[in-house]
Amino acid sequence: MSQHAGRRGFYFAPQCAKCGLTTGVFEVLGPGDMPERWGCWDARSQQLHSHRTDTDGWRMMLQAGGLDNGVVGEAIELDDDSAAELHRRLSERDVEALESVSDDLLGHCVECGAFYCHLHWRAGSCPEGHLRAQA
Fold it and tell me: Rounded to an integer, what distance in angstroms lies between the CA atom of residue 77 and that of residue 109?
């Protein structure tokens, strides 16, 4: 649940099945939304986000698997309905939705359905030994 009332986007940060650490963050910001962890950002990051973000559009912010698209994120094509549907599907660990976000980045094992952090996830297999086919 978001701490920001009226938020149109969502914050998805699954926890590792082994240790409870966050496996990564996938955040969708709707028009006018503030990032979920805004209050934890330093003043420079807040200023950069405020000055470089189109408040009329949808944005995606990703921090996972060594990737970080920064405090500005990137523009994406969504609307309220498709954002809500994507959030629902991610929360239910829908394989196709996870793959659209890159389940390998978020450390998701398709076979056991669990998420794993960078300490436990290895590209190609989960800690339980389930192999992931590489494209």
Answer: 27
Q: Which residues pair with 67 in a beta bridge?
A: 64
For residues 106 and 24, the answer to whether their CB atoms sit within 8 Å is yes
Show the CA angle centred on residue 134, arms to residues 129 and 135, nearest 5°: 160
Q: Determine whether 117 is exposed, middle or buried from the number of CB atoms within 10 Å of its CB (0-12, 13-18, 19+).
A: buried
CB-count burial class (<10 Å; 0-12, 13-18, 19+) for 107: buried
pLDDT-flagged residues of the chain (< 70): 1-5, 95, 98, 100-105, 133-135
The SS3 assignment for 44 reads helix
**How far apart are alpha carbons 18 and 20 in whole angstroms?**
6
| Alpha-carbon span 71 to 76, nearest angstrom | 15
Is the whole-model pTM more than 0.90? no
Q: How far apart (Å, rounded) are the C-alpha atoms in residues 83 and 63?
A: 18
